[in-house]
């Protein structure tokens, strides 16, 4: 088997923040790739054929020829390692800026992603209404946005003076804060300006349509609102778990 890159890219993904992350890199690098939509509501990601690509049974996953890469951050790094030879969206390995970029990337992987993911679950998808769960994870999500604000109130980008995979990864989650969690992004003006800079990029606008679900963003927001209303309707019922703290 020859060494990568193989230039035979297939992205297995769904319309989630983690699913958006590798699509941003693929579109920014203007790479040719195939898309295999995964219906996570039908548990496509738990089928044997998908588990052979990602044993964790989560989207996204990537194949490049016979090579598999799973976990969104690993996919982003693979794509920049193999295909971003001019370092447009990364920095030279071993440099201070490379590790600054990696720090912000891992900040998203270990912080914003898990915490905001839990906030989304309790706010819109939980089978009970949990005042404690919603408050705990929403407060932590906002705290992490505040960490981004410390940097972005003084700089255009998270690492150095250019847009990198660290920005792409964090953007994918932060953009979902207002519709899912009713976060007022104006409370974080540096973050708000950063979001607008990223959203104006043509590659970002293309990536946000991967995969093509046939639904507009307005329809998705309406669906999320309905999910939140369902959770709210559980208040005062036998499925209400208010905080006793």
From TrEMBL:
GST C-terminal domain span: 94-224
Domain (GST N-terminal): residue spans on this chain: 6-87
Family matches, as Pfam families: GST_C (PF00043), GST_N (PF02798)
Residue numbers spanned by region Disordered: 226-245
Coiled-coil ranges per UniProt: none
Family: Belongs to the GST superfamily.
Identification of the protein by name: Glutathione S-transferase
């Amino acid at each position: 088997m020859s060494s990568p890159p193989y230039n035979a890219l297939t992205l297995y993904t769904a319309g989630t923040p983690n699913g958006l992350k590798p699509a941003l890199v693929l579109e920014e690098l203007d790479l040719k790739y195939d898309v295999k939509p995964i219906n996570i509501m039908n548990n496509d990601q738990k089928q044997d054929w998908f588990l052979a690509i990602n044993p964790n049974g989560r989207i996204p996953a990537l194949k490049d020829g016979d090579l598999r890469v799973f976990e969104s951050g690993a996919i982003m790094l693979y794509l920049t390692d193999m295909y971003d030879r001019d370092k447009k969206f990364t920095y030279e390995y071993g440099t201070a800026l490379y590790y600054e970029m990696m720090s912000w990337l891992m900040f998203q992987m270990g912080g914003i992603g898990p915490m905001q993911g839990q906030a989304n679950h309790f706010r819109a998808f939980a089978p009970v209404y949990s005042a404690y769960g919603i408050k705990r994870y929403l407060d932590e999500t906002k705290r992490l946005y505040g960490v981004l604000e410390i940097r972005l109130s003084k700089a255009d980008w998270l690492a150095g003076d250019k847009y990198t995979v660290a920005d792409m990864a964090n953007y994918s989650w932060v953009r979902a804060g207002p519709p899912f969690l009713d976060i007022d992004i104006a409370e974080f003006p540096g973050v708000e300006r950063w979001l607008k800079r990223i959203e104006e990029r043509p590659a970002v606008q293309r990536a946000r349509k991967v995969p093509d679900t046939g639904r507009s963003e307005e329809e998705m927001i309406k669906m999320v609102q309905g999910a939140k209303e369902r959770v709210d309707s559980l208040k005062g019922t036998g499925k209400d778990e208010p905080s006793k703290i």
